[in-house]
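sanity check this:
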Amino acid sequence: MKPVTMYATGLCPYCVMAEKLLRSRGVTELNKIRVDSDAAQLQTMMKISGRRTVPQIFIGDFHVGGYDDLSALDREGSLESLLHD
């Protein structure tokens, strides 16, 4: 399984939903980076994703986007193959 990284905050309901969805698809190791407690990580997230909102999810080197993007990939059946390619 490819490594999964999620930039998140402590009080983000979409981050919680994204983590639940990833776990339900077999992700056991999730590199969760908190941007609310580390301004440098927030700057890094914005630089590599081009976005300011959380969550920002990366599967391997592929930038999925936020929860809505992750959920859309799951609905169309692409998430499983992305995780396991």
Remarks:
- The first helix runs from residue 13 to 24.
